[in-house]
Amino acid sequence: xxxxxxxxxxxxxxxxxxxxxxxxxxxxxxxxxxxxxxxxxxxxxxxxxxxxxxxxxxxxxxxxxxxxxxxxxxxxxxxxxxxxxxxxxxxxxxxxxxxxxxxxxxxxxxxxxxxxxxxxxxxxxxxxxxxxxxxxxxxxxxxxxxxxxxxxxxxxxxxxxxxxxxxxxxxxxxxxxxxxxxxxxxxxxxxxxxxx
Length: 196
What we know:
By secondary structure, the chain is mostly helical.
C-alpha cells in the first residue's frame, strides 16, 4: 500500500526541483531559508492578528514555500545536518504557533469564543501530531503515518483565510489534526504490542 507521506514527498519533489536548482546557484544556505520562512510566518501571524486575512493567507502560502525548499536545498547541496534538521523542526513548530497565535489575538479582540477555542485546540493538536512522531522516533520507530500533517494544515488555513472562512478551516483542522494524533498513536501501539 502506498503511504500518503510518499505521495506528498513525490509531489513536493517535482514541484520544488526547478526552484532548488536555481537556489543551489546562490549563496543562500538551507538554514537561512529556514529562518526566513519562520520570519515570514511571524509576519503572516501579525497580518492575521490585525484582520488582514486575504493578505495573511497569501503570506502563509509564501512561508510554506520556504518549508518545502530548505530541506530540498540541503539534500541537493549535500548540506543536510542534524543541527539543520533540529532547527527546521523547532522553527516549523514556532511558525505554526505564530499563525495560530495571530488567530487567537484576532478572535480575542473580536470577543469570538468559538474562534479562540478552536485556535487553541488546533495549536495543541498540531504540537501533539509532531510530538507523537518525535517520541516514536526517539523509541526507534518510524512514524510517518497520518492524514493531516503540517503541509495540509498550512494549505487549509491559507484557504480559510483567503476565502474568509476561517472558522470552517479551523473546524476542519481541529477534527483532522486529532484524527492524525489518533492514527499515529494507534500505529505506534500496533508496532509495540507485545514488546517490553
